[in-house]
């Protein structure tokens, strides 16, 4: 018997979201011949905050959590971007997501920069009371690192209007009585009735749907009868599916954190939503569809694929099996650079995240303006304004991509980066 030793081969390093966003940035920067000094500035984040903070749990014990806020750039205005509660939140994820926010707000023509943050936590294992204390303690620890004219958080993965209400209340509690109400716009995505914007809940999903609609109109196609699949059935996935279904498109597959279901004859969006609500937020076991292997999800037969969950979902491992001819990126960074190369080779169109899911931050901007000006806007007016803004961006991006014979992502990045470059060139770099 030989004395064999099993030597594990070193695993190739997994490309992270930060590698992806930097590669996307550099390829657009090359295309527009970005000023080298501005490239240096934008290649790195302005400020990175890591906070370890203690919170008392329901059982009386204290747990220490790690929270992040990364502020990438504020050349165009205050930092803006969500807070996510997820085990994958770390400094590199926050950096990457903050950079995407900078490009997203710039592309949308908003007076904002980009930031992102969150807590490395699986929120499903904590009680509502614990989540409230965690959120409030994190807000308190962030202190003046956030602020209505400085850095304005919003919901993201696993955070919602309730989370934002806790943040607003905690932040405002630290102000003197007369200053309190002036600080309501320290976060956006608050509940309607507590400074929130009518329709902010659906703004991201509505925007995803709109960009798909614009694309099909541009190609003289109709959404009626088109089959689509959605990864992630949270706020973004659900609302995008809702509006697509209204337009006559057919939902044929859904994947969430717990499992995947499919039905080529169609899944009724509202039924699935109600089932999920009654089933601890999971779609598993939905009776109108059959369960399927998660790894085969993206290979489902369909016309449109909407990744609306986490980053790095479409990669070289599954890009070849995708059947959809259109990918609409509801999530941030769902397609990695290698996966994208394959999709482009195969002639599959990608509506890039920084345009596709920008309805959310545009809605946030409206909420911020509403609070700042002491106004209350109506739903119709809001959705109309959102559509107008997105249509303008869509036209710009498609025109730029055609004129320069480049994909929509590179076009979107180029427009976004050029706007920031202009701001730096006009005002100069101190000292
Ligand atoms: N979390 C959303 C995003 O990734 C919204 C950000 C915001 O409204 O500030 O775009």
UniProtKB/TrEMBL annotation:
The record marks 156 as: Important for catalysis. Keywords: NAD, Nucleotide-binding, Oxidoreductase. Residues 197-428 form the Glutamate/phenylalanine/leucine/valine/L-tryptophan dehydrogenase C-terminal domain. NAD(+) binds at residues 204, 235. GO terms for biological process: L-glutamate catabolic process. GO terms for molecular function: glutamate dehydrogenase (NAD+) activity; nucleotide binding. It holds the Pfam family ELFV_dehydrog_N. The active site is at residue 116. Substrate binds at residues 80, 104, 364. Belongs to the Glu/Leu/Phe/Val dehydrogenases family. This is Glutamate dehydrogenase.
